[in-house]
Amino acid sequence: MATEVVSMPQLGESVTEGTIGQWLKNVGDPIEKYEALLEVTTDKVNAEVPAPVTGTVTKILVDPGQTVPIGTPICEIEVEGTGSESAEAPQTSAEEAQTVEAQTAPAAPAAAPQEGRGRYSPAVRRLAEEHGIDPARVNGTGAGGRVTRNDILQAVDHKGAAPAKTAQPAQAAPSAPAASFALESAPAVIDDGDTLEPLAPVRKVIAERMVRSKQTVPHAWLMVEVDVTGLVELRGRLKNEFKAREGVSLTYVPFMMRAIVEGLRAVPEMNSQWNGDSIVIKKRINLGMAAATDRGLIVPVVKDADQKNIVGLAKASQDLVQRSRAGRLTMDDLSGGTFTLDNTGAVGTVLTYPVINAPEVGIVTMESIVKRPVVIGNTIGIRDMVNVCLSFDHRVVDGAEAGKFLQVIKKHLEGIGPDTSIY
């Protein structure tokens, strides 16, 4: 019999490492090809990894909770069949490359830097020079083995001694902000009777991403009040008929998505990404929507939201939420976002300051709709009001553009009335 070495798969182009969530098979357990072997958590997705071959699990090399780079051997499976049958395993693995990336040759991880050698953007070269890192020795995770800024930051994180080797000590100071997400916070004080809960892998990933976003992205914040009385009347009139006809509930989320689409069309800088020495204006409008699940916060993406009407947005968003909570999202569902919406009003908030989902430029929250007295001309009326909050990357967008973006959202929502078509 032959032994198949299973490596940490790459679940997404920009993913450089993964955390073992839990092993679904133990040493000695038989396993069928394509049967779930373990759960892996990355900064983009929680996914079950299938076995690339049929056999018996003989070794588990990485314990639950550990985070290792892509390509690291994580377990061994004794393959069923004769030597001639096991010889076909590499060919089978190639067929499954989109699901599991099994690297059995020690030289395999080093191939990517060679392919990406010399193809470094100015931002990558500058960042590598600041930290005294040779990009040719960094495993590139971009297309064709291209070394990205995230690859350099990961190299700084995992090779903390690298900045000290630079011949220019004066440049060591700028390195701190780039790698500051790896710094440990002050330890907690544990008193008698306190309970110590181990950090779940998904919570670890969320914490890392939030710290990195706050310490590398200059957040700015704006808020507008919106009169959505007409929207509330429209939804009240249509919701029962809509549920019976379309099979999904008519919430306020698709209306907010449609308003965001209009805002992104009017201010395309909001639908962009920071790229070090350039700004990438995205062609597609793919709206991420924060969804709370039992396993933590997940942000699935409604692709091409600008091509959908209210009905289409309602169905797409609720499908993603349901599959998020059932743990049935795919990598495609969680990638490609260009802007994010968080419906914080669902938990009763009226004012929030959301953290940007980098490298996106902005995130909007829709707060609770509440009845308030509002001045209308020379009178006071009771209206349905909602606060719309925006966090934005001040490197890319200034207050003028951000304000215009919110005003477009406000105008669109306030223009909705009892007779507005949702088709």
Describe the structure.
- With 423 residues, the protein is α+β, with helices and mostly antiparallel strands.
- Helix 9 (253-266) packs across helix 10 and helix 9 (253-266) crosses helix 11 (399-414).
- It has 3 domains: 2-104, Beta Barrel (OB fold (Dihydrolipoamide Acetyltransferase, E2P)); 111-179, no CATH class; 205-414, 2-Layer Sandwich (Chloramphenicol Acetyltransferase).
- Residues 82-104, 106-118 and 161-182 have low confidence and may be disordered.
- Strand 10 (272-274) and strand 11 form a beta hairpin.
- It has helices spanning 83-86, 89-95, 108-116, 122-130, 149-158, 175-179, 201-216, 229-246, 253-266, 310-325, 399-414; strands at residues 2-7, 17-23, 30-31, 36-41, 46-50, 55-60, 67-69, 73-79, 219-227, 272-274, 279-281, 287-289, 291-293, 296-298, 301-302, 339-342, 362-366, 370-376, 379-393.
Please provide a brief summary of the model:
By secondary structure, the chain is α+β, with helices and mostly antiparallel strands.
Per-chain topology:
Layout: E1 2-7, E2 17-23, E3 30-31, E4 36-41, E5 46-50, E6 55-60, E7 67-69, E8 73-79, H1 83-86, H2 89-95, H3 108-116, H4 122-130, H5 149-158, H6 175-179, H7 201-216, E9 219-227, H8 229-246, H9 253-266, E10 272-274, E11 279-281, E12 287-289, E13 291-293, E14 296-298, E15 301-302, H10 310-325, E16 339-342, E17 362-366, E18 370-376, E19 379-393, H11 399-414
Parallel strand pairs: 12-16, 16-17
Antiparallel strand pairs: 1-8, 2-4, 2-7, 3-6, 4-5, 6-8, 9-19, 10-11, 12-15, 13-14, 17-19, 18-19
Helix pairs in contact: 9-10, 9-11
